[in-house]
Amino acid sequence: MRSYATSLLLFGLLAPSRAATVAHDLREEIAARDCCQTLQSQLGPTAVLFPGSAGFQQLVNSYYSAQESEIISQCRVSAHSAQDVSDAIKIITKGGCKFSVRSAGHMTWAGAANIQAPGVAIDLKQMNGVNVSADKKVVSLGPGGSWGPVYDALDPFNITVVGGRSNTVGVGGFILGGGFSNLSPAHGFASDNVVNYEVVLADGRIVNANKTSNPDLFHGLKGGSTNLGIITRYDVNAFPLTPKWGGSRGYNVSQGPAIFDAMIKFIKKLPQEPLGGGSVVWGYSEDLKNDTIFGSFAYLGADATESKAQLFSEMLDVPPTFDTIRTNTDQQWLDSEVDVAFPGGLRRIFSTLTLKVDREIAEGIYRKSHDAFAGLVGKPGVSWTASFQPISITHLQATERAGGTPQGLSPKDGDLILLNLNTVWVEESDDAAMQAAVRDVINWGTKEAKRRNVLHPWLYINYALPDQKVYESYGKANVDALLKIKNKFDPKNTFGKLWKGGFKL
Ligand SMILES: Cc1cc2nc3c(=O)[nH]c(=O)nc-3n(C[C@H](O)[C@H](O)[C@H](O)COP(=O)(O)OP(=O)(O)OC[C@H]3O[C@@H](n4cnc5c(N)ncnc54)[C@H](O)[C@@H]3O)c2cc1C
């Protein structure tokens, strides 16, 4: 390797700085080949997959967004146990190889949970176990599972967990970032309901983090992204399964202003109703070739007829174009509607803002999005949705009861609205224009919300663009506390240097 770069230099084919880069790239490539070979010899041939093999391609194809599926790593470690992850981390860090970690691969942006060669991908998808404790109070979840199969496994026990609102979304990244669930108004984030994390640290040790063992790490992991450790098991609180009332209602786009009025009234009633939740989604649908608006409704407890009618009354007063609302005990049916509306395999990006409860900013963001994407609609597969999801004060109270979060949210913030701008398209040639339109909306929304004094600084890690300043949004005291935890558990900054993807402290 040295002689190759040196000979290029000697023959004057490369400037010294370029030669140094070439030498560095070659060193990385050789290190990655060594890492993959050592991984294969120690973990076994079926645990380490190489590009071109069917197993490798199957795992790569199972990322949610097309941008993530296009990234081809040097090799892919298909871990089956915490010990596999620990062994892999020891080998990879000894070899100085860059790596990524993925659970179910639903974070949308390129490189969030995948890495281009010479990087090595650690894939937890096979670690998808669901085990219920004897007293049915705690469920142990492998990070690589998805919520649909988790709910299926819990049905026979008549219990549920604070999990995703989509069947395909992953356990690992969802809980790591927080996790908004239909149960959140009553029980907070999914991460508020973790009683124990099993974690692989930067030096390969497998430890538990809970209220008594490594309590600082336990707290940090509720906002730790790819900085503190690789979680190989989440032990979470279980709750009795109750029937759910809910579904979706579509509306004629001319009803948008009426729905937004109703949404604000509904959000203001939420503090009295921790069993209810929902969202309003306004956007452009390629299928309909038009702007579209729909609401999603969820109420836990089918028998509470009066409460739910009172909570959703204004939303239910607006006449729908379709209505799937019903009562059901199946944990998956509400989530199946999300899966149909947001299929995988396409180019996508999520982006986010957090707003105080203000009708004008919400409608303004819809109107700005309509204008920003106007030149793009009609191109292959282009659709976008601005979804407005309440974060009710009862949710933040539950977070506080569970010990608080390093993400800088508190019940003192009052009720909030979380924006998820979800964009989808097909052609790579439209990447730049779609991304520019997204940034235009987010920049406008930030500026306008600030001007109206309705911007809340928090940026939700699971919806954020890669360059949104998620950690800044947690506030300095939280970041300092997280850095202290990071320095204690990864004093050599191994994860900072080698673990790519996610958000870095
Ligand atoms: C269709 C759809 C529906 C969604 N619904 C919801 C919803 O209802 N509520 C909500 O809050 N969010 C929702 N999301 C967002 C979702 O929470 C994030 O995309 C989340 O990251 C998905 O988890 P995953 O396991 O698939 O993540 P991955 O893409 O596998 O990973 C996400 C990030 O976490 C890191 N990571 C993953 N696993 C581990 C681990 N075990 N240890 C350490 N780091 C790890 C990765 O390196 C990566 O940076 C949805 C997303 C989609 C696409």
UniProtKB/TrEMBL annotation:
GO molecular function: FAD binding; oxidoreductase activity
Residues in the signal sequence: 1-19
Alphabetical list of SUPFAM superfamilies matching this protein: FAD-binding/transporter-associated domain-like
PROSITE patterns on file: FAD_PCMH
Top-level lineage group: Eukaryota
Cited Pfam families: BBE, FAD_binding_4
Positions of the FAD-binding PCMH-type domain: 64-241
InterPro entries named among the record's database cross-references: BBE (IPR012951), FAD-bd_PCMH (IPR016166), FAD-bd_PCMH-like_sf (IPR036318), FAD-bd_PCMH_sub2 (IPR016169), FAD-linked_Oxidoreductase (IPR050416), Oxid_FAD_bind_N (IPR006094)
Annotated Gene3D superfamilies: 3.30.465.10
Alphabetical keyword list: FAD, Flavoprotein, Oxidoreductase, Signal
Family, as annotated: Belongs to the oxygen-dependent FAD-linked oxidoreductase family.
Name of the protein: FAD-binding PCMH-type domain-containing protein
Native species: Pleurotus ostreatus
Upper taxonomic lineage: Eukaryota, Fungi, Dikarya, Basidiomycota, Agaricomycotina
